[in-house]
Design a protein that fits this description.
There is one protein chain. This protein is an alpha+beta fold. It is 29% helix and 25% strand. β3 (75-78) and β4 form a beta hairpin.
């Protein structure tokens, strides 16, 4: 694949040039931004089983991490505070270490079947307060810590992206078997996947067993 060489004459390098390409912001898009969680935002979060959290390191390196659990796993402590359990993952700790270095975070909440989303921005911190963690236990397993988000901005996001992508439409679902397994993708791009099909299937089965044992 040949790399595309962009013409620097068409670079958009400042906000004035950027905004000149678009119509003025709709007034409703400005006033909808709130600094606390209203009743509808709180209900949206209680219904959401999935969100993504965006963080940055102290050097400005960006990261986005998916988080999922049964609906209501993100606790609304009050109209300005959220608590998020940190479930077992790959122990890279990208999100958590970024929060320590730079507490500014962005959250995007999804509800299956809803085309609109909820965006929440704020400042995050980490805690292992036993009382809070106990309230977040699943099958008697406590998270090691929780992310606390002090909310600064809240607003609903329109449905255009989901309408364009048909994300929830079963007739647009793709066949997962048309791509290799997660394990094979990682091995292909690193140390190399085994040539023996049975060995590869065993590695895929081991990963599925690990999922079942380490969800919580």
């Amino acid at each position: 694949m040949t790399a595309l060489q962009l013409n620097p004459d068409f670079a958009i390098a400042n906000e004035q040039s950027l905004r000149a390409l678009f119509e003025p912001t709709h007034a409703l898009a400005i006033v909808k931004c709130q600094n606390s969680l209203g009743e509808h935002a709180q209900e949206f979060i209680r219904r959401s089983p999935f969100f993504c959290i965006g963080t940055q390191s102290s050097e400005g390196k960006a990261d986005v991490s998916p988080r999922g659990d049964p609906p209501g796993f993100v606790k609304v402590l009050d109209e300005r505070t959220l608590a998020i359990p940190d479930r077992p993952g790959n122990n890279r700790l990208d999100t958590l270490s970024n929060i320590i270095a730079n507490p500014n975070v962005g959250l995007l909440f999804l509800v299956p079947g809803f085309d609109d989303t909820l965006r929440v921005n704020g400042r995050a911190s980490l805690t292992n307060d036993p009382q809070l963690l106990t309230s977040m236990s699943v099958a008697d397993r406590l998270p090691k810590l929780a992310i606390i988000v002090k909310v600064s901005e809240v607003f609903m996001h329109c449905a255009k992206a989901f309408r364009r992508s048909h994300l929830w439409s079963p007739d647009h679902f793709q066949d997962r078997t048309e791509m290799p397994s997660l394990m094979k993708i990682i091995l292909d791009e690193t140390t190399g996947a085994p040539k023996d099909g049975d060995e590869m299937r065993k590695m895929d089965e081991d990963l599925e067993q690990a999922y079942r044992k380490t969800l919580y």
